[in-house]
Every structure is written in structure tokens, then in C-alpha cells.
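Appendix B: complex inputs.
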Amino acid sequence: AQSVTQLDSQVPVFEEAPVELRCNYSSSVSVYLFWYVQYPNQGLQLLLKYLSGSTLVKGINGFEAEFNKSQTSFHLRKPSVHISDTAEYFCAVTLNPHTGKLIFGQGTTLQVKP
Amino acid sequence: GAVVSQHPSWVICKSGTSVKIECRSLDFQATTMFWYRQFPKQSLMLMATSNEGSKATYEQGVEKDKFLINHASLTLSTLTVTSAHPEDSSFYICSARGARQNTEAFFGQGTRLTVV
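Resulting structure:
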């Protein structure tokens, strides 16, 4: 079975500082990886996804993530955060991106302080 | 493109009543829709997968008689919480994918259900 672990439940950071949100997955077969952002009382918005090809994936809002197969990780990074980046971030995996069926991590709350 | 809309955004109902939540794909035909439940400060848990014109597939531990899912058209799926109880209070989110959105499902804005 597949699982996703987000190692940090909360990440406080000052505005304009860099940030990394960690995500590790467990699977005996190849998986496809996603990062979503959720603002309060809203649905999820896709930040980026890794399906194949380059292991460094760039997404919206200046975020990027790197797929590391040997470490089974897909950490999300941003070089300089803004107050507006304060939100909940979810890492997710799927065995088959065509199905749309996702397994989510526990989520990480990014708190950007002025 | 690829907009998914949920209605209502929030609802309060009395214990014992039923509540229907709609999930619509506004600009594409959703061959598959997913229903998730999210408790406060927790992750999303998949409840069921519905394919247009067929019965929904429920995840283990989800009561199909309590959470009725209907996917009667390519743009609409509904989740009905029957005989709601306070423990059913939660944030319910749908997502949808179509034949052309072959690697991504798009999420609705969610519905906050409070049962009093």
C-alpha cells in the first residue's frame, strides 16, 4: 500500500525567507506525486506535479519540488515566501495519474510572519 | 478552464435530517468524481469514487447507506448525508476529472456541514 508522510505539521517562517516543506512517500511501485495548497475554507489548488522526466518540477506561485527516488522524497521549496503563502499544503501520491485517485499526507501549515 | 463548483458552501442542519451537496463541473465533462472528507486540521480522506452512470465505489469503512452518491450526468454528482448526526459535521470536498484531464482532478471549494 502507498502512504505519504509530511514530516512537519507546522512550519513558521518570516516573510522573504526561504522555506522547505517535507514530504516522504512509501510505495513498492512507481508513484506520481503532487503538491496542493488549501486556503481557509476553500478547496485544493494544484501547485505542481511530478509524472516523469526532470526530477525538478516548477509550479505556480514560485514553488518548486524535487523528486528523489532514492530517498523517496518530494520536498516543496520556495526561495522567498510572502504573507499570502500562509496556507495548508498537502502532498499526495497516486499509482495512476489517469484515475485521479489520490492519497494525501497529513498536511503542513505554513505560517508566514511579517 | 476546468472549474468545479460545490453547492452549498456551508450548511447547518438538525440532527436526523438529510443534506444534499452538489458537485458540478462547469466547463468539462466529468467522467469521474471523487468525494473527500476533511476533519479540522487533518488531511483529506477519500470516501468514494463515482463514475457517470454507474454505482459509486466506496472506500473501506464508509457507510454507503449513510453517504448516498449519485452521478447521473457528466456534469453533476451529489452526496447526500442521510440522517445526519453531529459526528458527521465536517468539510466535504469533491474533485472531478474528465477524459481530457488525463492526469489531474480538479477540486471544488468544499462544503462545511454542521449538524446541530
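Residues 24 and 76 of chain B are 5 Å apart (CA to CA).
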